[in-house]
């Protein structure tokens, strides 16, 4: 989601500044809400001018979206040898990250803000949601390959059943995510027994 800027003559852009700016976003979001965060505060905390920030990101939503992508594991569903363990561990990792990082607090407001910019929303879906869905799907595929899940498993529905309640409680209800990973996984395993 980093803004792409045309190649300009002169000094090349210092990519270490990107890291400093994203680190500043994470620091600031530890103490303030998404709505309180400003481009000026990010630039000040990162020790850069606002023009430096705007050369890289077009808006507050775009820089925060990049920070959130970095805060959350893109592949939270490990291969532990059986589908139940893979899915429970992955869901626990998701819930833990939402509970312990700024991502959980800012994601509802960020997603709402991204709806004002369809291109940025699409980029966020591609960089944030799709890799995480792919991680769940890979765990399900391993389960099918090992004979732990039925071959006719509806992969998209199973992914939605597993992560949908987590995102719903986070994004729509704004509540603590008090779902049980064990219960969500049990429902999927019951639905698609081999």
Count helical runs.
Answer: 9
CATH architecture of the largest domain: Orthogonal Bundle
Estimate the mean pLDDT confidence.
Answer: 90
CATH homologous superfamily annotation of the largest domain: Tetracycline Repressor, domain 2
Description:
The protein is mostly helical and about 190 residues long. It has two domains: about 15-60, Orthogonal Bundle (Arc Repressor Mutant, subunit A), CATH 1.10.10.60; about 70-190, Tetracycline Repressor, domain 2. About 65% of the residues lie in helices and about 0% in strands. It contains nine helices and no strands. It has helices at about 15-30, 40-45, 50-55, 60-70, 85-100, 100-115, 120-145, 155-170, 180-190. It is elongated, with a radius of gyration of 19 Å. Residues about 5-10 have low confidence and may be disordered.
């Amino acid at each position: 989601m980093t803004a792409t800027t045309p190649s300009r003559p002169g000094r090349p852009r210092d990519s270490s500044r990107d890291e400093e700016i994203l680190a500043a976003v994470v620091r600031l979001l530890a103490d303030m809400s998404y709505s309180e965060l400003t481009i000026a505060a990010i630039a000040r905390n990162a020790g850069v001018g606002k023009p430096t920030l705007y050369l890289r990101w077009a808006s507050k939503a775009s820089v925060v979206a990049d920070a959130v992508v970095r805060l959350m594991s893109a592949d939270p569903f490990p291969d532990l040898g059986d589908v139940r363990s893979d899915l429970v561990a992955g869901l626990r990792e998701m819930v833990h990250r939402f509970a312990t990082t700024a991502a959980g607090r800012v994601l509802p407001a960020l997603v709402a803000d991204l709806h004002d910019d369809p291109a940025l929303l699409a980029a966020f879906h591609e960089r944030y949601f799709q890799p995480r869905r792919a991680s769940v799907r890979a765990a399900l595929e391993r389960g099918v390959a090992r004979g732990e899940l039925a071959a006719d498993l509806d992969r998209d529905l199973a992914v939605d059943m597993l992560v949908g309640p987590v995102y719903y409680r986070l994004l729509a209800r704004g509540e603590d995510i008090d779902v049980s990973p064990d219960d969500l996984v049990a429902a999927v395993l019951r639905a698609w027994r081999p």
